Input
Amino acid sequence: MHHFPFRNRDHTEARLRRLISPGGRYATSPDAFFMARTELRLRTLDYIYLGRFEMVPNPFPGERKIGLDVRDWRELVSPEERSRI
Output
């Protein structure tokens, strides 16, 4: 999840829409993968920001296809590292 920008939904959504809009980086790509991937990320935004983590598509092989286990970041970071944040 380190790639997912949680901080500002409006900025994130606008950036993704620019990528696939006319003139955007992926708008004319012959590879449909980029368009599909970006559209999936846009659909995923609603689930993330609504806290519906059980509905988030999970692309990782060998794991369930839908749903993410989300924990408080403090459980994943040592107290020493937390004090530097």
Remarks:
- The helical segments are 9-20, 32-50, 79-82.
- The CA atoms of residues 3 and 22 lie 25 Å apart.
- The chain has a mean pLDDT of 80.
